[in-house]
Amino acid sequence: MGRGRRLMHGHCERMDVPMKKQHIVLGVTGSIAVYKVADLTSRLVKAGYVVDVVMSKAAQEFVQPLTFQALTHRPVVTEMFTLHSEMAVEHIALAERADVLLIAPATANIIAKLRHGFADDMLSCTALATRAPIIIAPAMNDRMYENPVTQENIRVLQERGITFVGPGEGYLACGTMGRGRLTDVLDIYDAVKMVLGRRGDLAGRKIVVTAGGTEEPVDPVRCITNRSSGKMGYALAEAARDRGAEVHLITGPGSLRTPYGVRLTAVRTAREMLAAVEAATRDCDVLFMAAAVSDYRVAEAAQEKIKKSAGAPTLELVRNPDILASLTGDFVKVGFAAESQNLLANARAKLTSKGLSIIVANDITRAGSGFGTDTNEATLLFADGRQEDLPLMTKARLAHIILDRTADL
Ligand code: CTP
After folding, report:
1. Which architecture characterizes domain 206-407 according to CATH?
2. 103-133 per-position pLDDT tens digit
3. What phi-psi label fits residue 221: left (phi over 0), alpha (psi between -120 and 50 degrees) or beta?
4. Given CB 3.0 to 4.6 Å as the disulfide criterion, which of 115, 219, 245, 266 pairs with 202?
5. Residue 139 pLDDT > 60, yes or no?
6. d(Cα 136, Cα 244) in Å, to the nearest integer?
7. Domain coordinates of the chain in residue numbers?
8. Whose Cα sits closest to atom 17 in ligand 1?
9. 23-196, CATH topology level
């Protein structure tokens, strides 16, 4: 293992949902963005988290507590001292129960209260009493956000270890454009998974993942590429992030959402990918090479658009570097082989010739295993001769199994 360190043993096979029910306390404060947080709440509940919602008075002006109660199937906390509530008996019960405290949307007011340690309602009280990590997703008018007071409050809270996600930039409910809108709820969802996984079995590990197909220019308009969607590489990057790893994702062109909390380098050609991977692997523990790299490029791409009136062009192709084969270093290499015939023989040959520890082989002619799908049916081949046939499963689940096996090495 890189720099004399060993990956700790992985857990049993993971899904994209938490193994043990983890507890999220979701603080909701007064911003119109609260309607977006209803969607976030639904996602968190569907993923298997237990969500206890605490609403400020102002939040209740925008949305009724019933909305969150219906989504979470749990009582919503609106008052600090409600006699029929179990929270009244022990008003810091929520603080103790939380695995993470998420405040979304967070107004300038709650941010200011947290910075100064106020505890005048259930949410600020919970924030003050909890030992769980805190995530804040701000939403406010751009001038309130940019005000030096708010900026200073945020900086101080960040220094205390609180994670801020967003705000985003764009159209604000007050009719202006600027920074202050609640960030994409998918990023908030990812931030929760990342923060909960911080002490996971890959904590402290540096992992480089490549994804997608490369693009080789023919002229300023056309290119040679392939059908890789990048989904497998992105799934690996997210799974590694959620187990505590520091992840650098190097990706070819594509339309997938940049995963929150992952360093992303976008490249086009195989040679650009080689340069990026070379630099990133100087200091990493594992390289997962899920990208579909173009083996050939056009010897000399045309400077101007090729016109059809000039007749059918002949393209002279030259070999691209083999990134996996050319890289050596004190890190584990995991490759991928998408084949349409002789799957195992071809994959095993690549495992040996490229000096890999594991190769993930899949037959692209099988249903559910082709490019662009969300599922894959793979066989893992190991350098020591072992073989593991896996059933059809989501790429997210497969990513966790690949990480488990890599961690076991
Ligand atoms: N790979 C690479 N650089 C290349 C081609 C492939 O690093 N120029 C990596 C891929 O990212 C993958 C593994 O090598 O992890 C196998 O890729 P694949 O395209 O299946 O293999 P090739 O070596 O290109 O062999 P062939 O095209 O003959 O199947």
Report:
1. 3-Layer(aba) Sandwich (3.40)
2. 999 999 999 999 999 999 999 999 999 999 9
3. alpha
4. 245
5. yes
6. 19
7. 23-196, 206-407
8. 337
9. Rossmann fold (3.40.50)
